[in-house]
Design goal:
UGSC-like_dom; 3 strands; UGSC-like domain-containing protein
Amino acid sequence: MAGKITVLHPEGNAPTVGGKSLAPRPDTLDGRTVFLVDAGFENSGDLIEQLGASLQEHRPDITTVTVHLSTPFDPAPGLYARIAEEGDAAILGVGL
């Protein structure tokens, strides 16, 4: 039995996306507190650990605080509020 079929256009229409600016950077990290955030991706913990060790060796004047997300998709609003309140900067490690 022959019937009608519907053919869809496979390309679709992508929405227009506006750009966003980068977060403001401190002028210096001298004496500042930097949060190192393990984002939970594969190897991101190793990256953050090595970065923390390097900062302690080369920039002992910087206080580092290492924190971990439970998963890469953890919204962690409490953690981000803590970083905003207690930190001067944050580095998110996404791994390899």
